[in-house]
Amino acid sequence: MRRTLGTISAIAVALGGSLFAAAPAEAAPSLRFDYARYDSPGTDNRSNKSLNAEWISLVNTGRTAVSLKGWKIVDRSRTYTFGNVTIAGNGGKVTLHTGKGTDTRTQLYWGSGNYVWNNTGDTATLKTKAGKTHDTCTWKKKTGRTGVAC
Question: Which stretch is the leader sequence (predicted)?
C-alpha cells in the first residue's frame, strides 16, 4: 500500500497537483432582499408615519446568523450602512424603514426625512463590507401595486 500511495503522490506532483484538497472558500452568506414596499399607502406627505411605511427587507436563508456590520443598502443617491446588527439564520428577517424610529433587532430606521425608493422604478443594492455587490432588487411601477417581492 505504501508503494501505491507513493506512486500516486509522485504522479500527482508530476501533474502539478497534490493529494491534499484545497480548503473550501468561505461561502457567501445566504442573504438576499426579500421585499420592497416602495410606495407607502396613502398620500406621500413626508410624515414620519408615511416615511416608515416605505421599507425594504432582507432575509437570511442560511442556517447561521450573519453580522451585517459594515454592509450597505445603496440607492442611486443614498446609502445606509448597518451598525452592529445580526440577522438570524433559518429565515431571519431585518426590515429597514425609511423614516425615523428606534432600532430593534429586526426593525431598523434609515432616519431620512425624504422618501428613498422611487415609486416609478428603482434598484436597491446590498453591498458587503468589502464593497462588493451581494444582491439587487429592481422594480418598475405596476398599477395598483405598492411593493414587490425581490
Answer: 1-27
